[in-house]
Amino acid sequence: xxxxxFEVRFRCTDDDIVWPPSFSIITAYATTGERWSEQKNRSADxxxxxxxxxxxxxxxxxxxxxxSSGHTEPGWAVEMPFEMACDTGxxxxxxxxxxxxGDQLFVSFCDERRKQIVVDGFRTRLDPPMGxxxx
Length: 135
Known about the structure:
Layout: E1 9-12, E2 22-26, H1 38-54, E3 59-65, E4 72-78, H2 82-91, E5 96-101, E6 104-109, E7 117-121, E8 126-127
Parallel strand pairs: 1-8
Antiparallel strand pairs: 1-3, 2-4, 2-5, 3-4, 5-6, 6-7
């Protein structure tokens, strides 16, 4: 698994979010190691957003970023079971998703190698919001 998955930090647009007991973080942007045009990234993100909203589940915009490279990727925190999150990530050509249970942050491949690998406590990786440009 790519080391960048283990250095991730997260930002949201609000700091008063009531997080569900367990949830997943899924993105639709270019998977690790690939480069897509900004239009392709945004289009995939909009499709994912519509699909998640149609499910009528709890969701909130969250961005993951690398403190070392500065790479930022918008995604969605969604109240979705682990297996379903992996399946959704795979549908959007994702290598991996994050899963949070309690305050424990896990990462997992989306393919047949899926299993929850401990990263850290989620709240220790959650930084204060930086404006509302993530909507």
